[in-house]
Amino acid sequence: MGRNRAVFLDRDGVINPLVYNLNTEEYESPHYPEDFSIYTYILKSLQLLKKHGFKVILISNQPSYAKGKTSLENIREIEKLLQEFSDENGILIDKYYYCYHHPNGIVPGYSYVCDCRKPSTKFVEQSIEEFGLNRSDCYFIGDQDTDIECGKNAGLVTVKINNKDSQKKSGKVQPDFFAKNMYDAVQRILEVLNEH
Ligand SMILES: [Mg+2]
Ligand SMILES: [Zn+2]
């Protein structure tokens, strides 16, 4: 039974801090490998999830190439840093899904209304199928409304991380639980498990 449970994870603002962009005056995804760092509590958070038999599946919107803000090479390099972190610690993240599209992008081939950008549930559905997951034993952790919408649309339990740097893109959708960070979110999920 435990083998069919999963935690779906957003990346930016959950696993790594957002980065202040002087041009847009907004907190955004890291655009360069040097700007990517992993919160210190992520290791123990993911280890706890693995210990309790969760599949951990990352679903991240990465439109900054489509918007002309960085190169695909930089984006891929950042993805590699996260995968290396996971693999070096015994595969903490089982699967990675990235959407590179944006409806208002400027780069041809990447700038259109795709079907994989959160809150689309496409990648969640794909994972449920691939890993044979029980939907009612699955959770979505994210820091933006689009994450919570995605989780709710897919019928998952949602945990919203209150990251002050993502305030502008959150607050309109009600999650099942609030958490102050990823470690706190994992505690909420383990509490739910214990109630069953
Ligand atoms: Mg985020
Ligand atoms: Zn997409």
Work out the helicity level.
Answer: 25-40%
Give the end-to-end Cα distance, rounded to a whole number of Å. Answer: 12 Å
- The domain tally reads 1
Give a quick account of the main beta sheet: strands, pairing sense, barrel closure: 6 strands, parallel
Would you tell me the structural class of the helices and strands? alpha/beta
| Count of distinct strands | 8
Write out the CATH superfamily name. Answer: HAD superfamily/HAD-like
CATH classification class: Alpha Beta
Secondary-structure arrangement, i.e. CATH architecture: 3-Layer(aba) Sandwich
Oligomer: single chain
Strand portion: 15-25%
How many helical stretches? Answer: 5
SSE ordering:
EEEHEHEHEHEEH
Bound molecules: magnesium ion, zinc ion
Structural Rg = 16 Å
Mean pLDDT score, rounded? 96
The best one-word shape is globular
In the CATH hierarchy, the third-tier topology is known as Rossmann fold
In the predicted model, the low-confidence regions spanning at least 5 consecutive residues are none
Q: How would you sum up this structure, described in words?
A:
- This protein is of the alpha/beta class.
- It has a single domain, classed as HAD superfamily/HAD-like (Rossmann fold, 3-Layer(aba) Sandwich).
- The chain has five helices and eight strands, in the order βββαβαβαβαββα.
- A six-stranded parallel beta sheet has the order 5-4-1-6-7-8, with helices on both faces. Strands 2-3 form a two-stranded antiparallel sheet.
- The longest helix is centred in the middle third of the chain and has 17 residues.
- It is globular and about 50 Å long.
- The two termini are 12 Å apart.
- The structure holds magnesium ion and zinc ion (ZN).
- The site of zinc ion (ZN) has 5 residues, from loops.
